[in-house]
Amino acid sequence: MLKIGEIGWIEKDRPACGPRDAIVKPLALAPCTSDVHTVWEGAIGERHNMILGHEALGIVDEVGSEVRDFKPGDRVIVPAITPDWDSEAALRGFPSQTGGPLGGWKFSNFKDGVFAEFFHVNLADSNLAHLPEGMSLEAGVMLPDMLSTGFMGAENAKIEFGATVAVLGIGPVGLCGIAGARLGGAGRIFAVGTRPAAIKVAKEYGATDIVSYKEGNTVEQILNATGGAGVDAVIVAGGGAEVMMDAINVAKPGSVISNINYFGQGIGDEDLIPLPRVGWGFGIADKTLMTGLCPGGRVRMERLAEVVTHGRMDPSPMATHVFKGFDRLEEALLLMKEKPRDLIKPVVLVEQ
Prior knowledge:
By secondary structure, the protein is of the alpha/beta class. The chain has helices at residues 33-40, 88-91, 124-127, 137-140, 143-156, 172-183, 196-205, 218-225, 243-250, 298-309, 329-338; strands at residues 22-29, 56-63, 75-78, 119-121, 129-130, 165-168, 189-192, 209-211, 231-236, 251-259, 288-291, 319-324, 345-349. It has two domains: 22-142 and 315-349, Quinone Oxidoreductase, Chain A, domain 1, CATH 3.90.180; 147-291, NAD(P)-binding Rossmann-like Domain (Rossmann fold, 3-Layer(aba) Sandwich), CATH 3.40.50. The chain contains eleven helices and 13 strands. The protein is globular.
């Protein structure tokens, strides 16, 4: 990111490796909608000459003198969120927020990201995980952000066995939210979206009902399908600021609205996200709004790898566009910006 609205290649020095850190070479990379929000919407403010990217598998090139569990040549999963695990926020149970709001999100936020020939990982023993033997790169590169974020959406929604769930937005994060809801015991799962490729995968991951916002009001369709009752949990995984109106309006009293959507823009001059006063029960209808940033760290990656290794969920169908070669990164990022209808997620396999 050269500045808001502009990307390009840039030469930078190889990062230095601290005693507890690692320097990693990319093995597989995936552009994210967050990169699009950051560059073309200026969602987190101006950034100059910052390397983008936070979704990677890699090969360890160098480790610090105090790193115990990793060595040069190891193939690793690099989480999108790399917290400072000895910080106050981590000790309180919120490692993604270390150093302040969103502070665990270092790559492509306030630190150079992974779209480079070499990148730095802080606290390697806590923020890297070994890539399981035999796991495809297309599947593995979905773990650092897509699976972690989508599953968190289901976890935060407090889904009970047999619960009815609505997932608003079925990009790759929403698709993982669907898979997480099914693994968490959901009964009926409404998936709101229109892209044919995503609808196909949504059904494979457990969606029982597809709701197209092009065919009528989303809230009315879901309320009609549930006899006016609404749903037990909502996972917000896409859409503009107005999507929160739909989320709260379809939620039953006593339900949880779990937001994992990155709002790159708000509504109006004051940059607000609206809530429906009546649908919210005037603020006293026991509708809980949960938010959270993608969980990171080693244990999270190891747990997600177990889900994939043992066949509970296969992320590879989300890799609809696979490029080979580091120089294809820009093409893949622009594809994520343009979002053709057959796209779910682009992946770049880097020759090593």
